Amino acid sequence: MVSQPNVARAGRVLVLGSDTRSFLAVIRSLGRAGLGVHVAWCPEYSPSLCSKYIQAFHEIPYYRPVDQGWIASFNELLGKYEFDLVLPCDDAALLPLQLNRQSLLRVQTIYLLDDLAYRTVSDKRHTYALAQSLGISLPRQAVVASQSELRDAVREFGYPAFAKPFCSADADDPRARRAVKKIRSINDIQQVSTGMLARGPALIQQYFEGIGVGVEALCCEGELLVAFQHERVHEPQSGGGSSYRRSVPLSLELLDATRRLLRAINYNGVAMVEFRHNVRTKKWVLLEINGRFWGSLPLAVAAGVDFPRYLYEMLVHGNRAFSGEYKSGIYCRNWRVDIGWMKANARARESNVAGTVSPWRLTTELWNILRLREHSDTLTLDDPRPGIEEVTTVVARVGEVVVSRWRQARHSFDHRALSALQNASRLLFVCKGNICRGPFAEYYLRMVSPSIRTSSAGLLPSEDRRSPKAAIAAALAWNTDLSKHRSRTLRSSELAAWDIVFVFEVEQLRAVKRMVRRSKVSTKVFLLGGLEVSGPCEIADPFGRELHQFETTYHRIARLVDVLAAKLASRKESAECIPSDERLPVCK
Fold first, then answer.
1. How buried is 304 (Cβ within 10 angstroms: 0-12 exposed, 13-18 middle, 19+ buried)?
2. CB atoms inside a 10 Å sphere around CB 124
3. Which domains does the chain have, with CATH numbers?
4. pLDDT digits over 545-585, tens only?
5. CA 43, 238, 121 angle in degrees (round to 5)?
6. Fewer CB within 10 Å: N-end or C-end of the chain?
């Protein structure tokens, strides 16, 4: 018997995450099945919070390795609502719960992996050891711990090669995703040595020519219940998730490898086993196992394999019979990410980089929309608001690029921001995580204008995070010490205390303005980069990048803060020269 949604016995679930791919797909899947969906550990700016399927949003503290107070808040939430199931959708949500399972209330309702399965799928050393024992093909690879070992490995494998951390996230900061680095030159070797290898040994893999393929699976105690396969259409040049993919028939070889891997660790739950397949030679290699919901999940749901609902039915009601049928040739695109991919693809073509996609092929792909074969990760007819919000943000960013080239508009932005400073004495800087851009602006402004009250905050619901080592090192060039900084999260209730809020990106601008409307205060929000009449209005996040990129970012922020400081100083001087009853705002 194949399981179908049963609204009559519907319960309540808590979904943890933040993105508009797996997190939003899980929310929609369970909401469509008639379940009451609650969410937590999600930043207030996430478009996913616009979903009509969310019944409640809980603002609870995120995991802090040095403070167990978050566990009490988490357990209080579980005790109050007695959820049927708690579903973490990414590493940042899963890792804290895996590490603290012994301290969690009603842990049997939380979707967690057993120790063997989690250790195997979260650490590539264990993944590859298992694959090797089963005779499953792997790319040539080596473990390196120094620059000399890295050079030797690249010399043996040739360019390009890939440097991979053993784990994508660690206990100190689960939100700090450790990314794969593509090595194309001597310069990349140097960057990996000072970046990734500074945190410990890493894997170096030989490039395997082919297409990225994922076999998605639901298992019950090692038995494969449902499987689905996708193929990447748009692959990032430097690695990472795909922005455009399609459903394809199951490969018997890849399905067999998936079944053997998951059976060997008695896997219980959902997983995506990632391969690289060479269509011409018919050879393939295993890349990794994702032991949680994956970014391409919306495609599986659109093609007919509803993994989130199946997982709920299996864990809560004990069902094990599900439909494995799905439509091949269904496409799914994340437009926000895909626009970035298209820009990167165009730059790569200009540099004659191999593996790029021609403009003609990109044009022909639009035919999938007309054939009604293409879906969007975020925009759906039954739940359009998250997609509309994301599209609006993309349009706003494109508008920012256009406007930033129009000198008259930039002068207008600059004039409005500097005019607002006339009566401002309390300045707040808001960035994404409050560990890179905002803290530097805050501490640097304190140094150059000690009389101004200033602070910084982040939009991510994550407190007490340290600034990255590269941020601390880069800030020292401006006599700014970030070593003692700890992140904090912006609350709507505090916005009334600040005269001006400066942000760094359009997404943050929109998020803070939404919070301003909710708090019913007249706080003014500006892009810090708008203080200059040339260059981009946005200041990109250097998080996860190399030291020189932090230095470039901080150089620009320091220049803009100097503009603020000069304006504040000139205002003070003007005020001292004018009798108190004649003081008027001065706009320069």
1. middle
2. 22
3. 7-120+210-376 (3.30.470.20), 140-206 (3.30.1490.20), 405-576 (3.40.50.2300)
4. 888 899 999 999 999 999 888 887 776 555 454 443 333 33
5. 65
6. N
